[in-house]
């Protein structure tokens, strides 16, 4: 079973920040949180990942709570091209490093 | 860097035939490749994990004799759907991780292959 829960859908106005929450209350101390997105009929695209600290790259920011039981992906200025399904994944710390996908959040950016 | 390709992107076949899908890592050596299946409006479901030169590990409920996986080199894995039936129609996606792709072991995904069985 997936170790993450996300809201099924969200809307965001173009140009505004999109904040996508993820609950991973059973995460263990050495498991990373990864975020991917999937635009219709394409393979998932890597966005960002983190362990304990907040992270930022050219695409997004990742805020992880101090107890690591939840996180938020922030797209600072959403565009229409950010419309996609966003997946939050807790990655196995060793072995095959396999991903178990949850249901994701379908983000719709509105003009 | 870290590009994964799949071929074909789309295939239509008759019921009872076998279909092979290729997954290639173009600019890194993939020590591990993963195969997923995705039905319409659903999430990705992991089917199997394969390491170069060894047998694939299948997830519970996935028939290993129906979905044959070969990972013969560090840049190529193949998924063969044997005796395909209409219920096998789906979007098949591969991913890869390995040397030179990243130091954090993230997976890089291919663009997917849409299989339609008539």
Keyword list:
heterodimer, A: 111 residues, mainly beta, 5-stranded mixed β-sheet, globular, B: 118 residues, 7-stranded mixed β-sheet, 4-stranded antiparallel β-sheet, 11 strands, 54% strand
Give a nutshell description of this structure:
The complex is a heterodimer of chains A (111) and B (118). The radius of gyration of chain A is 13 Å and the shape is globular.
Task: Give the SSE map.
The complex is a heterodimer of chains A (111) and B (118).
Chain A: E1 9-13, E2 18-23, E3 32-38, E4 45-50, E5 55-56, E6 61-64, E7 70-75, E8 84-91, E9 105-110
Parallel strand pairs in A: 1-9
Antiparallel strand pairs in A: 2-7, 3-4, 3-8, 5-6, 6-7, 8-9
Chain B: E1 4-7, E2 10-13, E3 19-25, E4 29-38, E5 45-51, E6 57-58, E7 67-73, E8 76-81, E9 90-99, E10 108-109, E11 113-117
Given helix and strand content, the structural type of chain B is mainly beta
Proportion of residues in extended strands of chain B: over 45%
Question: How is the main sheet of chain A built?
Answer: 5 strands, mixed
Can you tell me the overall shape of chain B? globular
* Approximate helicity band of chain B: under 10%
What distance lies between the first and last C-alpha atoms of chain A, to the nearest angstrom?
36 Å
Q: Overall 3D geometry of chain A?
A: globular
Q: Please write the string of helix (H) and strand (E) elements of chain B.
A: EEEEEEEEEEE
Describe this structure in words.
The complex is a heterodimer of chains A (111) and B (118). In chain A, 0% of the residues lie in helices and 45% in strands. Chain B is mainly β. Chain B has no helices and 11 strands. In chain B, strands 2, 4, 5, 6, 9, 10 and 11 form a 7-stranded mixed sheet that branches. Chain B is globular and about 40 Å long. The model of chain B has no long low-confidence stretch (mean pLDDT 91). Chains A and B meet through strand 3 and strand 4 of A and strand 4, strand 5, strand 9 and strand 10 of B.
């Amino acid at each position: 079973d997936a170790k993450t829960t996300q809201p099924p859908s969200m809307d965001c106005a173009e140009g505004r920040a999109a904040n996508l929450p993820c609950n991973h209350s059973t995460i263990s101390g050495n498991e990373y949180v990864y975020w991917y997105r999937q635009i219709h009929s394409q393979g998932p695209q890597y966005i960002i990942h983190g362990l304990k600290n907040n992270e930022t790259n050219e695409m997004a920011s990742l805020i992880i709570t101090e107890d690591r039981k939840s996180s938020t992906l922030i797209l600072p200025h959403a565009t229409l091209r950010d419309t996609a399904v966003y997946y939050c994944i807790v990655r196995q710390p060793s072995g095959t490093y396999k991903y178990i996908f949850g249901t994701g959040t379908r983000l719709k950016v509105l003009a | 860097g870290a590009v994964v390709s799949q071929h074909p992107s789309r295939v239509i076949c008759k019921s009872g035939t076998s279909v092979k899908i290729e997954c290639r890592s173009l600019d890194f050596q993939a020590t591990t490749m993963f195969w997923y299946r995705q039905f319409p409006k659903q999430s990705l479901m992991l089917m199997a994990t394969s390491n170069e030169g060894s047998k694939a590990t299948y997830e519970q409920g996935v028939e290993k004799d129906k979905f044959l996986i070969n990972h013969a080199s560090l840049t190529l894995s193949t998924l063969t759907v044997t005796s395909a039936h209409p219920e096998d129609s789906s979007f098949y996606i591969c991913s890869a991780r390995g040397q030179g792709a990243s130091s954090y072991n993230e997976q890089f995904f291919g663009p997917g292959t849409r299989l339609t069985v008539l």
